């Protein structure tokens, strides 16, 4: 009887050990699938854009510093709103990818050398961006993320010419576009589908513009004339700031540079200045200069519903909020103001009296 009970107890013990071992393996497998990769290999886990994207931060340059301003913070002291983000030199251009996870900007240091920087908004880690073969380049500038967020374009300067460098952010490969006409690039833009780039020369008598198929580097002419600014990344149409004698207006054209529509219809002494298209590709805000007086206007991409948004003659440098419902702009020697697009009420959110302020981005 005792021998029989002993045998049964051994069998039960072994069965329990097997059951406990199976449970342990199962729990371990679940842990590995759901948690281990996040703990031990955090760099391989892609954060959710909705939880990590920068929301309602206005980026601006002042002197040799890059600042960001929390436009939604319900506090009056500006020191609670303003954060010095980077101190690598005078920032000329800044762009943020489509989900707010990466920031690219250029900065001119005390020796007038322009470098390009890429910042991870989660870790705040900053990386210097250069092509694989960088010996022929002096400066790197004007970063621009593709609309799909997978590539970063920027200009590499060699002597008096520019080449367009495209960095694939998924596999770190790169493509260099060498324009047939050797010149500096005044302005360039991605196409909305992220498959083409359009660029315009700066140091030619006639600022010729070309579009390039990135896949095969096929280059074709699009515009002639003095094109000072161009945008193609928010809409299927191309928007340009074009100077003709004493006139300067904003035009809309098809992808072949044809069927131009004058969106601003300004006559001297009034001329159009810098412009921004909203993220929906429906509206434009832009400067209108009359001598040294400047105000902000808006219109639609159909050229209708033109409105004057400011009347103080000192408002400039307008930028859209990420949701396209608000705009921010500078008032000379006063600071940064914001207002809702459909309302005339404005709010001062930063008291900045310096002259060397550049509004760069609102995300």
Task: Tally the helices.
Answer: 3
Strand content: over 45%
Indicate the percent of residues in helices. Answer: 10-25%
The structure class reads mainly beta
Q: Whole-Å distance between the termini? A: 80 Å
Gyration radius (Cα, Å) is 27 Å
Mean pLDDT: 87
Low-confidence stretches: 32-54
| Strand arrangement in the largest pleated sheet | 3-2-1-28
Name the overall outline: globular
Q: How many individual β-strands?
A: 28
Question: How would a textbook summarize the main sheet?
Answer: 4 strands, antiparallel
Describe the structure.
The relative contact order is 0.09. β1 and β2 form a beta hairpin. The protein is mainly beta. 13% of the residues lie in helices and 47% in strands. It is built from 3 helices and 28 strands.
